[in-house]
Amino acid sequence: MTTFDLLAELPLRVESYSLEALSAEISPEFTRHCTLVWMHGGGHSGVGEDVTYGEPEQLAFQEAGAVHELSGSWSLAEFCEATEKLDLFPNESPQDAYRHYRLWAFHSAALDLALRQAGRPLHQLLGREPQPMSYVASTRLGEPPTLEAVSKRLRLDPTLRFKLDATSSWGPELIESLVQTGAVDSIDFKGLYKGTSVDQAGDPDLYQRVAAAFPEAWLEDPDLSLPETRAALAAEHDRITWDAPIHSIADIEALPFPPRMVNIKPSRVGSLKQLCAMYDYCSEHGMGAYGGGQTELGAGRGQAQYMAALFHPDTPNDLAPAAYNQLDPPAGIPPSPLVAEFDEPGFRWPDPR
Q: Does the structural domain 126-325 have CATH classification 3.40.309.10?
């Protein structure tokens, strides 16, 4: 029996759905917009979060409102299959990733609602006990880069671990200062992003310097399309991981070599069935996984943390509490690993008590 088989026949009664707009200023240059999708039925409500990054796409979605007819009695599998056939971006032509993000909002909301109607928590149906979830905090170091973003977070929690976005502007002194913190678990080269504000071209010198300075760190998303970059990391295949290209099992199988670890983001996969299949695939192939965030503003972050607590709690999950996304994070953020009591029905990280 597959992981999705354990969920597929959950009965689901949908009477209506609604949308809730969320926004937050992440930096002076970036206001994040997200949309909560609320599914209602049988006196219960389930929630999912659309993390589409495009502001126009988010505002158009919110303005249009609940335009799809989803009411009725379904199995969870039937509902997921039906929504995969919908055009969730009418009158728009978004990038494929956005379609996955929005589909996940509907699938996660339906899963949450079906579990609440059944009076069951997710982990109970899957036969998995949630474990304390280890996390790292992800940040960039600015241009010109400085240690300040790392230092201010370490002042809040000296035990905090990091995933850092490396850029060609990292000099030897900065790298040595980062080494001295002893807090770097993974480095993101952002080598596979194209046409975004975080693009980082393949840089063999950067790859060599970082790989040598952090011999135990995971190395995420290098651009290996050039002979020079492939040569720079030829001896590091065991610690190269992948994030941006991973939307499906086919994407894992298309990688230049079988990885020891991949980043599985539920919203990047989109389909609940395919997400479950990816967890099964990793287990069957002895492949590790870790979770990643999408600058969520609502329930989506907790749902990704929940999945991590079930399937890969001890890996460097890039799922720190959302407060770490602030320019000046507040004191009192729960340290890693995150611990919670998952005794309430549904698919949500429990509220603090």
A: no
